[in-house]
Amino acid sequence: MQIAIVGAGTSGLFLNRLLSGRKGLHTTLFEQSEKAGTKLRASGGGKANLLNTDIRPEHYNHPEFLRRLLQQADAARVQRLWESFGLLTRSDDEGRVYPLSLCAQTAVDTLLPPGMDTDIRYGCTVRELQAENGKWHLNGEAESFDKVVLCSGSPAGMIPDKRKAYNAYLHSLSLETTPLSPSLVGFRIRRYPKRLNGCRAKAEVRLLQNQREIFRETGEITFKEDGLSGIVILNASAHYNRLENKEGAYLLLDFLYARPEWSLQEHLRLHRDLSGVLHPKLHALYLQQAFDPKNFRLDIEAPYDLAFAQVCHGGIPVEKVDDTLALRGHPGVHIAGELLDIDGVCGGYNLFFACACACVIADNLCKDAH
């Protein structure tokens, strides 16, 4: 069985590794750049946050779809597979799993070990897919494939010029996709106090809309020139993206979350100011424009551009694939990873999803080969 894998990112490389050496299967990877695993090498701040020990459906935008997927490939299975490839792993106190080396390149190296018979065609942009007599052809070439697995990811993190024609081959399949928007990204804030630029502070962050709480989490916030970033903000953006109508969404920050008994009035009565409470930049803002440090409101203008996003919200609707991730109406085509309209929060959830998809597809392809 000849298998074309479009995209040598995490899902494509993981799938290729799973199928490598399987009797009767031959894989060919098509990668438009000159390197494999570009996003994998950059993930987790260069440490590769591979997965999380607490993978749950509610951490994703389509929990029911994840619930079915996890019955076939859960976090324990994916971690065992990484270790079976020779990659030792470690987890931190928050369940994030990394290579023991804390170096993302080691993850790429275990997916492309020396001596593995791997056919990767770099600098090859797939522009078109065509079916003919039960076989698939790429870019009108005579070479044919029995199966095609689409693993080409999303344009998250790309500048506008580079993402114009990204995944253009999907048009040849006449697929209707959900519009892409940035997820795991910072927020631009209305009437933003620019004097906070460069401030870093820990707070409990609540995302609300019309006084209804959408999300709550504690973490460090980075105040930028025109908005906010930091893991807790990126996670808030994932939940913000799931709102059908985003009008009126805002953030409430509690810088005194660890002191629930603290009273602004009592503190001011005793100490007259908040210099011993707030980051100096926050205190300078307070002196200029008083606010409640337990309820500091910031109105969301919009997420930052896709160029700053870690993943995309949107893509191929999950209803277009079956439980084996086969594309309905296109026999022989499977979809993996971020091409699907699935996005999770920070902490290894999206890399896990890419690998879990590869597991499910590999299981199915191996069955078809026998």
Report on this model:
With 370 residues, the chain is an alpha+beta fold. It folds into two domains: 2-182 and 313-368, FAD/NAD(P)-binding domain (3-Layer(bba) Sandwich); 187-303, no CATH class. The protein has helices at residues 10-19, 38-46, 63-70, 75-84, 104-111, 160-163, 231-241, 264-271, 280-288, 349-368, and strands spanning 2-6, 26-31, 51-52, 89-91, 96-99, 119-122, 129-132, 135-138, 147-150, 178-183, 187-189, 200-209, 212-223, 227-229, 249-254, 296-303, 311-315, 333-335. The chain has a six-stranded antiparallel β-barrel with strand order 11-14-13-12-15-16. Strands 6-2-1-9-18 form a five-stranded parallel beta sheet, with helices on one face. Strand 12 and strand 13 form a beta hairpin. Helix 1 packs parallel to helix 10 (349-368) and helix 2 runs antiparallel to helix 5 (104-111). It is elongated and about 80 Å long. 40% of the residues are buried.
Topology:
Blueprint: E1 2-6, H1 10-19, E2 26-31, H2 38-46, E3 51-52, H3 63-70, H4 75-84, E4 89-91, E5 96-99, H5 104-111, E6 119-122, E7 129-132, E8 135-138, E9 147-150, H6 160-163, E10 178-183, E11 187-189, E12 200-209, E13 212-223, E14 227-229, H7 231-241, E15 249-254, H8 264-271, H9 280-288, E16 296-303, E17 311-315, E18 333-335, H10 349-368
Parallel strand pairs: 1-2, 1-9, 2-6, 9-18
Antiparallel strand pairs: 3-5, 4-5, 7-8, 10-17, 11-14, 11-16, 12-13, 12-15, 13-14, 15-16
Helix pairs in contact: 1-10, 2-5
